[in-house]
């Protein structure tokens, strides 16, 4: 009786010429082949396909990452260091992200400064502010992994844009949500949704009507903010293995989704063919978003139900106590429900979650609580440094971790 050939050998045989295309450097190809060699002893075909695909994607990603050379070694060491998974970077998020590897973050969730709404961050005019934000969004696009999500909380404000008139009369409603949507799209992101966060409380003074019950004097009170959701779909021309048989014998599919390269399996021995005898159609997006639909990753039914409609009521964080003191050491924290939504809906355990405008680091702590690696960048160390870290530990940690003390790792880029 002849011994059955290990399935990994079948994959490599069928994929050989395509592997040579993906790794034109022979040394790199050999390195890859060596890396998957251990699969020869594996007999579970499903497992072999998953592991082979993971290693292949990892190799392709490393080659892609090596094209970007401005990384900051100490920053990357800090991010990769195995610690408690609560990582705080003091610095400007633009500079910090410029030091990160491309496509190394699995989810971003944040709330930026709302133009000149807070005394601690101010811009000369609205255009300067939007230009700065555009640079940050551009860098975020590079750093966010492909086919991943950015959840961006922002409120429309009532202020002077300081472009044409600087007097109080120049104050107007400024639709930051709309401006950001346009910038995100121009920087390559795909707009997915605008969930309205109903705060239930009045956010601006715009409704003041001087007690005049006449036309043109009545404006509704503003009581919402946006939770904008964007996807990144970088058109990656690399070939990826068929999720059914693991082979790279795939052809470009004529009916690709916009901005995506999708594939059709051409391996006639593949385990799944359509009635019309067509091979499996897939893309890196489907591998990324559908590859782990297992019970252990399922989101609780109640949570899905809570977020089923795109208007959601969440009480804002109460930060002023009865004595008029700011209890959180920060003037604009967002409720933990926002990062909780982003993290549960758009990431898996052990993945990297980045909040580039860390503030009081709510996102980082919620990420940790949900078993992810939370990374927060914050410019204002004076305001959020040690004393507010103490506040954070006192106020948020006991609530999130049942009094377990979490180790916070810090890196100072200031
Ligand atoms: C609206 S607050 C974020 C609130 C945060 N979501 C929370 O729950 O605390 C915006 C934060 O971004 C910080 N910031 C502004 N510009 C920054 C930059 N270029 N890099 C890093 N942080 C910045 C501000 O100091 C402020 O803490």
Textual characterization of the structure:
- The protein has helices at 7-22, 26-36, 45-65, 73-80, 93-98, 126-143, 176-186, 284-290, 301-306, 337-346, 362-369, 381-384, 386-395, 397-401; strands at 86-90, 105-110, 144-154, 157-160, 171-174, 189-198, 224-232, 250-252, 262-265, 281-283, 311-313, 352-355, 373-378, 409-412.
- Helices cover 34% and strands 18% of the residues.
- Helix 10 (337-346) packs across helix 11.
- Strand 2 (105-110), helix 6 and strand 3 (144-154) form a beta-alpha-beta unit.
- With 414 residues, the protein is of the alpha/beta class.
- The chain is elongated and about 90 Å long.
- Bound molecules: S-adenosylmethionine.
- S-adenosylmethionine (SAM) is lined by residues 92-94, 111-113, 120-121, 330, 332-334, 357, 359-360, 362, 377-380.
**What's the story with the biggest beta sheet?**
9 strands, mixed
Would you tell me the structural class of the helices and strands?
Answer: alpha/beta
The hetero molecules present are:
S-adenosylmethionine
In what range is the share of β-strand residues?
15-25%
Oligomer: single chain
The SSE string, one letter per element, is HHHHEHEHEEEHEEEEEHHEHEHEHHHE
Low-confidence stretches: none
End-to-end separation: 69 Å
Count of extended strands: 14
Radius of gyration: 25 Å
